[in-house]
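Example (one chain per record):
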Amino acid sequence: LSHEGKIIARYYSLFKKYDVPTPPEDYAMFESLTSTQSAVRDTVDRCLAERDQNIDKLVGHIERDVVDLNTVLKDVKKDISNQKILDSASTEEDVQELLGDLTESLDVLLNKAATFKGYQKQFKQPLSDFEDLEQVHAELQLKQMAWTIKKEWNQLTAVWDDSNFVDLEPDYLQQKLQQYTKNVVQLEKGLPPNTL
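Predicted structure:
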């Protein structure tokens, strides 16, 4: 900036030396150039000096927001632990509505956590740990998977029950049974004992 200011000053000294006519507005702007340059330098210096303070303020706000997120997460975690979700006597509609609400709440928290991590990376700050959030999300996915599997299994077995035995394809049956066995084992490992 100062280098280009010197170039402009040389031009104006040449204009003056050779009596080149200069519009008065342009000359007035040239006269204010040094004070404008000083003001810009001062503003940049002030911003650089305040940068660390502003980053510290932002980090403080993020830390408070992370604490707030974890408080909300505790409520969501309590709702996810609702016994109704893993009770086979519960109606599918009620549970799907509850799971949908929990998914929306958790998606908001996941988006906030991603935003916080993005700011922390951008300003080279230590990343907050959202392990609890990830665990709650994984648990919710397993519970959703349990209800999806139950619904699909009921539909599949209804079709098999209505079919003639000779019309059933053994390879298809074996493939589906293996798939559901794998899913059930995954659910048994990830979820507490339940009646679902």
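Caption: The helical segments are 2-17, 24-31, 33-80, 92-122, 131-162, 170-190.
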